[in-house]
Design goal:
This protein has helices at about 5-30, 85-115, 155-165, 215-240, 255-265, 270-290, 300-320, 325-355, and strands spanning about 35-50, 55-70, 120-125, 145-150, 150, 170-175, 180-185, 190-195, 200-205, 205-215. The protein is α+β, with helices and mostly antiparallel strands.
Length: about 350
């Protein structure tokens, strides 16, 4: 890993976090809500500066950040407090951070794809002799794979990922001559094929996906497909965590992410390839952050959004104002647990890097 790649990765990661908090900040300001502090990272402050009504700070634990608004978790007489704003304004403020990350990820993917000479598609374009996956009574040359095991296929990587799971059979939906064809429990068998570059045999399915020539007209659809693919991969990862197929050891924090970005950049043959690889990694992180922050977990944006909607519904039905401090207690407990998780992941990342 080079010093440049590490610094670039840290800056890119920090920018993604700043833009997330900036989304909350801008939405709050436009809604007339008072912002007391705009912080990058968590923990004790290592830099603070008061500008107008807002304190700007950088904190010592390189994970997360926050935009602290007046009356966010408590009742106050300040007419510009978060609680005094209309419920729909508060909802916009809460989701704006994730929305900003989603836009950031999309733009980073678009920037990366602007260097591409072609865009891969999901059509079967080439079949090797001896392939049993593509056959007369099943998948055929020219088929566009659009769904596997209930998951949409946005990129060829999606298909390869889902095919790599333990089960040898899959439910596959393809588009052929404008019509959808369904194959239930379709057997995906790998066979030894010769790798002409290495001269050795390797197990693979024996077919390749095609690619479209790069053009302005294909740039935005390919960028959107990559963004949707990344969102779906988060869903798949969460499902693996919930079902026990993945655990804490498979999770990565900021330290390991920066290390992975730096290693990827160092392995690139050219400087421009290193930059493009890290920008792609940045887009992946930004979209992941957008989705993860909208999960219905206390203390993060998704949990606060759900709490807001439930509180608003209860107040509409009962005609009584609920004390926001009770919801604040729930988020405070969630914040403590989240902080503990951050520390655990941080130490795991450091230990993993030292272990090498």
């Amino acid at each position: 890993m080079t010093i440049f790649s590490i610094i670039f990765a840290i800056l890119l990661f920090a920018i993604i976090i700043i833009l997330h908090e900036l989304g909350h900040f801008v939405a709050a300001k436009l809604s007339g809500v008072q912002v007391n502090e705009f912080a990058l990272f968590m923990g004790p402050a290592i830099f603070k500066k008061q500008i107008g009504e807002t304190l700007y700070s950088i904190r010592c634990i390189p994970f997360g950040g926050y935009c602290a608004m007046e009356g966010e978790d408590e009742d106050t007489d300040n007419p510009r407090s978060f609680q005094k704003a209309a419920w729909w304004k508060r909802l916009i403020i809460l989701v704006s951070g994730s929305f900003m990350n989603l836009i950031t990820g999309f733009l980073l993917f678009a920037l990366v794809f602007s260097f591409a000479k072609s865009f891969e598609n999901t059509k079967i374009d080439f079949v090797e002799e001896g392939c049993t996956v593509v056959r007369e009574d099943g998948l055929q040359l020219g088929d566009q794979i659009i769904k596997i095991d209930g998951y949409r296929i946005y990129t060829s990587t999606d298909a390869l990922l889902l095919f790599s799971f333990d089960t040898p059979t899959h439910d596959i939906v393809v588009k052929r001559d404008g019509e959808k064809i369904v194959f239930d429990d379709y057997l995906m068998e790998k066979h030894p094929f010769l790798n002409e570059k290495t001269g050795e045999y390797e197990d693979r399915y024996g077919f390749n996906f095609g690619a479209d020539p790069a053009s302005i007209g294909r740039l935005l659809p390919s960028t959107w497909a990559q963004t949707c693919s990344t969102i779906q991969n988060v869903r798949i990862s969460l499902n693996m965590l919930l079902t026990g197929k993945a655990g804490l050891k498979d999770m990565a924090g900021p330290v390991l992410i920066v290390s992975m970005m730096s290693t990827t950049a160092t392995a690139a043959p050219k400087f421009i390839d290193a930059v493009v690889s890290m920008l792609y990694f940045g887009g992946f992180i930004a979209v992941n952050l957008a989705v993860m922050n909208m999960l219905p977990i206390p203390a993060i944006d998704g949990g606060r959004s759900v709490g807001l909607l439930l509180t608003t519904a209860i107040e509409k039905i009962t005609k009584k104002k609920l004390n926001p401090k009770y919801e604040g207690y729930v988020h405070a407990v969630g914040l403590v647990l989240l902080f503990v998780l951050m520390i655990v992941i941080l130490f795991k990342d450091v230990f993993q890097l030292i272990k090498g």
